[in-house]
Design a protein that fits this description.
It is a single chain. The protein is mainly alpha-helical. It contains 8 helices and no strands. The radius of gyration is 22 Å and the shape is globular.
């Protein structure tokens, strides 16, 4: 919705807004789940002694497309409900959304490997995921924390080119070229660290599910 107009009249979000938002949620969850399924399928194949390829991973994810679409619909619906709660009451809604969102994220932590391996529907996948999380929450917490700490320090190192660029541009009067180059390298390194971190966390999910 819009925050308001000049005369203080609040503009409420309409059906079109929520329809577009739902479509965005659905597309986002479907794409993320599809490629996470690709990676998890490759990881599980490798854990079993196989030699996965990008093609085998994509093929495995494509064969689970009905389950992935079903999961995307459920996840998008939950996202829409949380968004509507937040819209109705800013302060209380925000707190409720954060609590429910955190619980939902924990409960659905293993949904994708369950979809890939067990080929169940989205509701059953959520139930199985919550059950597995109850047995592996300690390992999941430690593993994610470890990856996050390493990624944090890697992000700090990624700032070095930016700092060097600033120093060269300011201290040596070299113009903006060193600053631009340093900033570009920092952004590139941060993107690489982000991708590697997300990949490791997805592989961790597959390993905890498998073992």
């Amino acid at each position: 919705h819009s925050p308001g107009t000049g005369n203080g009249v609040r503009v409420q979000a309409g059906p079109v807004f929520y329809l577009v938002l739902f479509a965005f949620y659905f597309a986002n969850y479907a794409v993320v789940a599809f490629f996470n399924s690709t990676l998890i399928a490759c990881a599980i194949e490798r854990f079993g002694g196989g030699n996965p390829t990008l093609g085998s991973g994509l093929s495995a994810a494509a064969s689970r497309l009905p389950q992935i679409i079903g999961w995307a619909l459920v996840a998008a619906t939950v996202g829409m409900i949380l968004q509507m709660i937040a819209e109705r009451s800013k302060l209380v809604g925000s707190i409720v959304v954060r609590l429910i969102g955190a619980a939902w994220s924990i409960a659905t932590y293993f949904v994708v490997p369950v979809l890939v391996v067990e080929r169940v529907g989205p509701i059953e996948a959520v139930k199985r995921s919550a059950s597995i999380m109850g047995k592996t929450w300690g390992e999941a917490l430690v593993g994610n924390a470890g990856i996050s700490v390493i990624a944090f320090f890697a992000m700090l190192l990624a700032l070095v080119p930016l700092g060097a660029g600033i120093a060269l541009s300011a201290g040596l009067n070299a113009g903006p070229a060193p600053l631009i180059a340093g900033a570009a390298l920092t952004v590139l390194f941060m993107m690489v660290v982000g991708v590697i971190s997300a990949t490791l966390k997805t592989i961790l999910v597959a390993a905890l599910y498998e073992y």
